[in-house]
């Protein structure tokens, strides 16, 4: 990861306005950026945007052999990927610390919290189970990645449907989605993570953007008290804590955590309701056979947008089997004798050699170089 | 070839929809849908890169292709190679020596003509990033079915019935072939006919580029 | 002297040659390098071939294995092709995982073989849903001096043409497999795809097509690998890939296709002569 430098000017300004009760984008302390969820054409693919932060999640499944210690449970993999698309300072093909951290947070929230009914993914005990794989791609990094990524993961998992399976004796047939209705994944509870930025040891900001995140985790040069950090809290819809993680400076009082938890639990509940509503409305649209596709996220109210429907062109209709032309071409190419000899030289070997006099060497002498 | 055969036929490309500057952090980005096929491309550069990768003559171009789900495959490297070679001929790299340009492509939906959509989207993202280019480029895909009929910008159903599929990339100045790749077997005549049709159809894509740029740029409009 | 000139003015050096209608290695623009083909070179492999096109040398070995076919396609065997570019073949490569160019070449070779339909994968099936042949075709480049795909396809096809499959009997009751290596049948190969590489160079307003380019020429024409690869099988085009280089005009393309067609015939002849020569040897 290339270094991103934060200027003192920016840092001081953000610190100053935050302590005066303002934020750079005009939000209040507890206000989140607008959340938007859109689905792709396949089951289990969605793009979640939180302000400018955008994340793509895709769930895929395959049949594998279960682990020996858990012979009747399916598997869940979460894979977070970040490439230069997210932000220019991220290098390609290299795991960044941030991506590893994000991956671990999501694993804690969705794998370790046991929100997915893994036993329902079993097909034949000790032989065949479904393995779900969630691929999370960060498209645009503008702060609060964990919240955006966790909403994307949750939405994708809840939206995903796996193909139906029939067992007859030893053989297992997997039905195509067109043949038989696919089965949705069973989720016991819906965890969502959220980030709270702590400024000046006691100011809490919900949903920090990239600049606010980097300001609150950076140290202050003039040697005064280190000011803040990032608190990640994950709640499910029953207001149970699933994840908690603090990075940055140590907390000065326990009250801050309590204050943060109160705000976060309500927020997570709201988000879960929103996710459920989005999935239901998507499902009714699909039932009406409305084609849902990522092309719907391309809006038209933007200056830099354009859509064209009628792309018609009149073209001359050529005739492919134009016999006459072929004959002429053949007549042209026939008389030329081959310039090459084919010889069977050694056992198991054949050679093509250029006939003598096919080309001549010209020496470019040193005289001609100088002119 | 067949000059007396001048009956004109209607050909159609699937509707195109595009948004430039879709991503705020990249220097240039575009999302493009051609029918149901969607691609997202971000361009970053020229930026500072490691000494070992620097070239004193021109910008180092890096192309990354990221599929929607699953692990990276060998086929992805081929797509990267195609797009890198296309960009390399188009970008005036000698204006940005000792720097790097990164092009990242994200697959969104693949419903036929995906690579063509990626290439067109890349061109829009490069225009959006404001990099100096020799020419713009446009890709058109086509499919030849068992009867030898040529279908421009094929949908998945047409692809399934096709004997061969071809994608051609043309430059905006002389409409010469920048890049081309084919799948399946076909006769020479079918190849040259498909090439000619795609060459004419590429004008539609170039017009699309011009329209979108003139929409937001007062200088051109 | 010439070597120093080449270092100081690399572009002018190349242009000087081209303006005299000759290439730095003494060939005419459309002239290909000499080809040497040897089959059954590796005794440990089930089929093998070595080809030398100019300096470019590629060895291909085919290994046979039995496997269960995929559940979705129970009547289909497998043809796995892989191109290896070890550091010994060129100073451009370093030890380690396969480079991008090796992966691109692998994809190109696999695509050409699949598109030409020269091998019907159903021929590799032995018992429905139970048993099928896997052909592991490994191509190792020993010396990479340009036009790599041509050499890979040639050596692969020569190997496939000499490949014989032993008789396999399968008992559905006991699920026992027995292989009889003394009874062998030839693998059915339909046609002979031949790939021809070209480099495209813009020289004084005119586009030049260089057939069978060396690695130096490929580099001068803007990149790793050839700019245009066309492939013929039975007189039908089964692939035409163009990357980079100068842009291709219609005339240049016609020129290239004509050369490729001629070359396809010549290469077909070499492979035929070579295999006849080889069969004579066996029957002696």
Automatic annotation (TrEMBL), chain A:
Protein name: Exosome complex component RRP45
Domain Exoribonuclease phosphorolytic: 31-163, 189-228
UniProt keyword list: Cytoplasm, Nucleus, RNA-binding
GO BP terms: exonucleolytic trimming to generate mature 3'-end of 5.8S rRNA from tricistronic rRNA transcript (SSU-rRNA, 5.8S rRNA, LSU-rRNA); nuclear mRNA surveillance; nuclear polyadenylation-dependent rRNA catabolic process; rRNA catabolic process; TRAMP-dependent tRNA surveillance pathway; U1 snRNA 3'-end processing; U4 snRNA 3'-end processing; U5 snRNA 3'-end processing
Presence of keyword Repressor: no
InterPro entries on file: ExoRNase_PH_dom1, ExoRNase_PH_dom2, ExoRNase_PH_dom2_sf, Exosome_comp_Rrp42_subfam, PNPase/RNase_PH_dom_sf, Ribosomal_Su5_D2-typ_SF, Rrp45
Compositional bias (Polar residues): 346-365
Naturally occurring in which organism (per UniProt): Mythimna separata (Oriental armyworm)
A Pfam family assignment: RNase_PH_C
Localisation: Cytoplasm; Nucleus
Source domain of life: Eukaryota
UniProt entry tagged with the keyword Amino-acid biosynthesis: no
Annotated Acidic residues bias: 326-335
Region listing for Disordered, in residue ranges: 326-371
Single GO MF annotation: mRNA 3'-UTR AU-rich region binding
Gene Ontology cellular component annotations, sorted alphabetically: cytoplasmic exosome (RNase complex); nuclear exosome (RNase complex)
Family: Belongs to the RNase PH family.
Automatic annotation (TrEMBL), chain B:
Primary location recorded for the protein, binned into one broad class: nucleus
Subcellular locations according to the entry: Nucleus
One Gene Ontology term, aspect cellular component: nuclear exosome (RNase complex)
Keyword list, A-Z: Exosome, Nucleus, rRNA processing
An annotated GO BP: nuclear mRNA surveillance
Single Gene Ontology MF annotation: RNA binding
Exoribonuclease phosphorolytic domain location: 13-131
Domain of life: Eukaryota
Family from the record: Belongs to the RNase PH family.
Designated name of the protein: Exoribonuclease phosphorolytic domain-containing protein
Native source organism of the sequence: Mythimna separata
UniProtKB/TrEMBL annotation, chain C:
Pfam families: RNase_PH
Keyword RNA-binding (UniProt): yes
Organism: Mythimna separata (Oriental armyworm)
Keywords annotated in UniProt: Cytoplasm, Exosome, Nucleus, RNA-binding, rRNA processing
GO aspect biological process, one term: nuclear polyadenylation-dependent rRNA catabolic process
Protein name: Ribosomal RNA-processing protein 43
Family of this protein: Belongs to the RNase PH family.
One GO MF term attached to the UniProt entry: mRNA 3'-UTR AU-rich region binding
Domain of life from the UniProt record: Eukaryota
Start and end residues of each Exoribonuclease phosphorolytic domain: 31-166
GO cellular component: cytoplasmic exosome (RNase complex); nuclear exosome (RNase complex); nucleolus
Subcellular location, record wording: Cytoplasm; Nucleus, Nucleolus
């Amino acid at each position: 990861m290339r270094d991103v430098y934060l200027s003192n000017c920016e840092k001081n300004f953000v610190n100053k306005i935050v302590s005066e009760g303002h934020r750079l984008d005009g939000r209040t302390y507890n206000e989140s950026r607008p959340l938007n969820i859109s689905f792709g054409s396949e089951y289990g693919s969605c793009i979640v945007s939180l302000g400018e932060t955008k994340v793509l999640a895709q769930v895929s499944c395959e049949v594998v052999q279960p682990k020996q210690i858990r012979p009747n449970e399916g598997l869940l993999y979460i894979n977070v990927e970040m490439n230069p698309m997210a932000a220019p300072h991220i290098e390609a093909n290299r795991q960044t610390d941030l991506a590893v951290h994000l991956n671990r947070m999501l694993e804690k929230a969705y794998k370790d919290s046991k929100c997915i009914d893994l036993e329902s993914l079993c097909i034949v005990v000790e032989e065949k189970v479904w393995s779900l794989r969630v691929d999370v791609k960060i498209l645009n990094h503008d702060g609060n990645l964990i919240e955006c990524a966790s909403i994307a993961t949750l939405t994708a998992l809840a939206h995903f449907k796996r193909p139906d399976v029939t067992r007859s004796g030893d053989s297992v047939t997997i039905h195509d989605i067109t043949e038989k209705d696919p089965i949705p994944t069973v989720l016991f509870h819906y965890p969502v993570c959220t980030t709270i930025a702590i400024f000046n040891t006691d100011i809490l900001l919900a949903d920090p953007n990239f600049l606010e995140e980097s300001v609150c985790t950076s140290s202050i040069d003039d040697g005064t008290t280190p000011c803040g950090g990032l608190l990640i809290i994950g709640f499910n819809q029953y207001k149970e804590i699933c994840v908690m993680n603090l990075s940055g400076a140590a907390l000065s009082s326990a009250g801050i955590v309590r204050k943060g938890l109160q705000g976060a639990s309500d927020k997570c509940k709201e988000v879960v309701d929103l996710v459920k509503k989005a999935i239901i409305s998507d499902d009714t649209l699909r039932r009406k056979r409305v084609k849902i596709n990522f092309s719907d996220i391309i809006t038209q109210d933007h200056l830099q947008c354009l859509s064209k429907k009628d792309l018609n062109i009149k073209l001359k209709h050529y005739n492919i089997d134009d016999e006459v032309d072929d004959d002429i071409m053949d007549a042209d190419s026939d008389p030329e004798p081959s310039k090459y000899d084919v010889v069977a030289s050694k056992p198991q070997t054949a050679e093509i050699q250029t006939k003598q006099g096919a080309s001549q060497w010209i020496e470019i002498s040193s005289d001609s170089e100088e002119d | 070839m067949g000059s007396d055969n001048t009956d004109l036929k209607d050909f159609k490309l699937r509707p195109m929809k595009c948004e430039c500057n879709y991503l705020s952090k990249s220097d240039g980005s575009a999302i493009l849908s051609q029918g149901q096929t969607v691609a997202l491309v971000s361009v970053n550069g020229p930026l500072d890169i490691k000494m070992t990768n620097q070239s004193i003559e021109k910008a180092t171009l890096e192309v990354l292709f990221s599929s929607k789900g699953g692990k990276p495959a060998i086929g992805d490297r081929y797509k990267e190679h195609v797009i890198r070679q296309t960009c390399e001929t188009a970008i005036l790299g000698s204006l940005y020596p000792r720097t790097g340009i990164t092009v990242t492509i994200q697959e969104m939906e693949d419903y036929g003509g995906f690579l063509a959509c990626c290439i067109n989207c890349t061109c829009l993202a490069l225009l959006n990033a404001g990099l100096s280019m020799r020419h713009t480029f446009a890709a058109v895909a086509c499919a030849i079915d068992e009867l030898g009929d040529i279908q421009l910008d094929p949908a998945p159903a047409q692809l399934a019935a096709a004997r061969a599929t071809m994608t051609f990339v043309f430059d905006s100045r002389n409409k010469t072939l920048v890049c081309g790749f084919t799948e399946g077997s076909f006769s020479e005549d079918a190849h040259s006919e498909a090439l000619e049709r795609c060459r004419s159809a590429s004008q539609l894509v170039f017009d699309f580029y011009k329209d979108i740029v003139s929409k937001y740029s007062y200088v051109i409009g | 002297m010439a070597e120093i000139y080449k270092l100081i003015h690399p572009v002018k050096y190349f242009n000087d040659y081209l303006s005299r209608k000759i290439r730095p290695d003494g060939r005419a623009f459309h002239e290909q390098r000499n080809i040497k083909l040897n089959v059954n070179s590796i005794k440990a492999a089930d089929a093998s071939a070595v080809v030398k096109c100019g300096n470019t040398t590629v060895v291909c070995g085919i290994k046979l294995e039995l496997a269960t076919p995929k559940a979705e396609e129970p009547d289909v065997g497998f043809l796995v092709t892989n191109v290896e570019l070890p550091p010994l073949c060129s100073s451009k490569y370093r030890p380690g995982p396969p480079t991008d160019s090796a992966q691109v070449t692998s994809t190109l070779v696999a695509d050409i073989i699949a598109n030409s339909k020269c091998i019907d994968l159903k021929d590799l099936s032995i018992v429905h849903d139970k048993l099928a042949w896997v052909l592991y075709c490994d191509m190792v480049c020993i010396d990479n001096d340009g036009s790599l795909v041509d050499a890979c396809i040639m050596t692969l096809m020569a190997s496939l043409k000499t490949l014989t499959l032993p008789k396999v009997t399968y008992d559905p009751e006991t699920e026992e497999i027995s292989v009889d290596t003394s009874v062998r049948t030839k693998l059915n190969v339909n046609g002979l795809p031949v790939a021809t590489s070209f480099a495209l160079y813009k020289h004084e307003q005119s586009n030049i097509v260089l057939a069978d380019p060396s690695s130096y020429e490929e580099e001068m024409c803007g990149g790793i690998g050839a700019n245009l690869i066309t492939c013929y099988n039975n007189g039908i085009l089964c692939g035409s890939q163009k990357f980079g280089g100068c842009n291709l005009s219609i005339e240049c393309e016609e020129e290239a296709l004509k050369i490729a067609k001629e070359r396809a015939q010549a290469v077909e002849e070499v492979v035929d002569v070579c295999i006849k020569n080889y069969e004579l040897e066996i029957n002696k």
